[in-house]
Amino acid sequence: MAEKVNSNRGKNKLLIICGPTGTGKTKLALSLAKQFHGELVSADSRQVYKGFDALTGKDRCAEIPIWLYDVIEKGESFSVADFRARALPVIYDIRKRGKLPIVVGGTGFYLKALTEPMHTITIPPNNLLRFTLASLSREDLQKKLSIIDFDKFKKMNQSDIHNPRRLIRAIEVATWKQNNTTNTQLKQFNSDVYWIGLMDSMVTLKNIIQKRIKHRWNNAMNEFDNKEIDVLGYRHLSQFMHGRISKKDAINGWTRAEYQYAKRQMTWFRKQKDVHWFTVSEPQVNKNISIAIKSWYTL
């Protein structure tokens, strides 16, 4: 039974369901949406592509809207700034209609973009500048950045200062700031945020990931269109479709890729503060999560 929402409660609330792939985030979020009168916003960098339901593991629900599925065509670029620009109006609209926005996904930078004042993510790329800078050596990039933003140059760690891509982005940001004295888009998103993190042992997750891939295999084959797409599993599917590897090898390769991705996700999420972690294989985990959310939501 859905929670009744009054005019004050939930006005500034934002629920985030995060964690690595294979932990059942969307399934839980849909259940919570029914209970707390909410709608979902996907924070998954792969699920923004139109199609690819099997490859990216999209869960659909006739009763509950899931926003930010299928927002760009295959091959189009989509940055964290694009995500923030699309997600914020959706969240505001969900609240305006008296519902709870539930952001669910495993793309950490997308989630961080909604909850922290990230002062550079909404600065758009300058393709002409990037093209010009790409011809410069690493030493020239370092020199250029030190001239236009010495404070930024001094704060960069050794890894960043020797990374041409990050040097170019730093120059791009510094150049943009020189030409824009004000930026109303960089306001911090004001919310009472409650983070739920789902986890399990990596051995369990690997088994779940492989089962999901086997279940999605036939539908994934139907989604193959012989284009180069940066989606996990697509390369292994392509190799199989062209007869270069066996189905077994393709599934195993896809599983390894998803598993490595899950490990990177856990490494990132463990560093985040204020996440309330739950192990999905524990008894009554959904009930315990519901109790925790209700305590926060009714404050």
In a nutshell, what does this entry contain?
Helices cover 51% and strands 10% of the residues.
Which structural traits does this protein have?
alpha/beta; Rossmann fold; 2 domains; 13 helices; 10% strand; disordered N terminus
What does this structure look like?
This protein has 299 residues and is of the alpha/beta class. The protein has 2 domains: 13-118 and 186-297, Rossmann fold (3-Layer(aba) Sandwich), CATH 3.40.50; 127-182. 51% of the residues lie in helices and 10% in strands. The protein is built from 13 helices and 6 strands. It has a 6-stranded parallel beta sheet, sandwiched between helices. Helix 3 packs across helix 4 (108-115). It is globular, with a radius of gyration of 21 Å. Mean pLDDT is 89; it is low at 3-8 and 182-187.
Number of strands: 6
By DSSP (H or I, 4+ residues per run), the number of helices equals 13
Distance between the termini: 19 Å
Proportion of residues in β-strands: 5-15%
What CATH architecture of the largest domain do you see? Answer: 3-Layer(aba) Sandwich
